[in-house]
Amino acid sequence: MMKKNSHATSILFCGLLCVLILSGCSHNTQSQAPVDAEPQKVTVLTEQVKATTMYTYLDLNGGIEAKNSVTVYPNIAGKIAGNAVVLGSYVRKGDPLVYVDPSLPGSRYELSPITASISGCVISIPPKPGMKVSTDSAVVTIGDLSQLEIKTYVPEKYFSQLQEGLQAHIKVESYPDTYFEGRVKSVSPVVDESSRTVEVVIVLKEKDSRITAGMYAKIKLYLKEYKAAISVPEKAVVHRNGTNMIFTVTDGKAVAKPVELGVLIDARYQILSGLSEGETLIIDGLTAIQDGSEVQVVTSNSEDNE
Asked: Which of 40, 214, 221, 250 has its C-alpha lying 20 to 30 A from 96's C-alpha?
């Protein structure tokens, strides 16, 4: 009787074990069943497309000079005996500038004054006393500071684009955060053979006491204007299958658009066709997107395109 009970218990135990194993297999099968997951969105940075004015320009250097200036020379050779002026002195026509001692060994002469031939400001440093000068020695330059001009030299290859009236921005070291407005007054009709450059003269649109002769000027000379131009950052243009493309965002999806490129200015391309004002342009995150990709805009750059 005991053997029958033991055999029945073994059968019951085996049955329960099979049930547990089958239950576990069924659970694992259910957990591995495919689940319809939402497509992962690509994070992108965008900007609103705006029409702006673009300019091609040249960065140049130049010196600020008095428009009307005269260099004064001695009328007799000798040594500088003394100066009546210093750099920046205002003089009137006929005022003494420096005195020359024409004395030779064994003789003595009266000092000979060198006088101003025009009224204006002394814009060069007078020679030091004791310096020997001849009638060919420039001793003082006098200029009219009420009329200043900036001379700069432009490479020959831009000659065809130069003309009177072109706009310019001028900066000087004394006021590094200020732009002074200028315009091209004249363009030399010839190219310098040695430097292969063209002399260009720029004048300030308005007189400004902060600008004076002798200053060093940094010049931004604007050559050509593109009004109502659509532009995009250079990094927003991708090259795929021989086509220049950009991506915009519509209803949360990336839309690929072929575009025709114009000029490249300050790392921005002018877009001649394929993009309109008001569209939302993707400017970062382009490596992971295709046409139709779901996108998540994290930041929108609303600053004006310049």
From this structure: 214
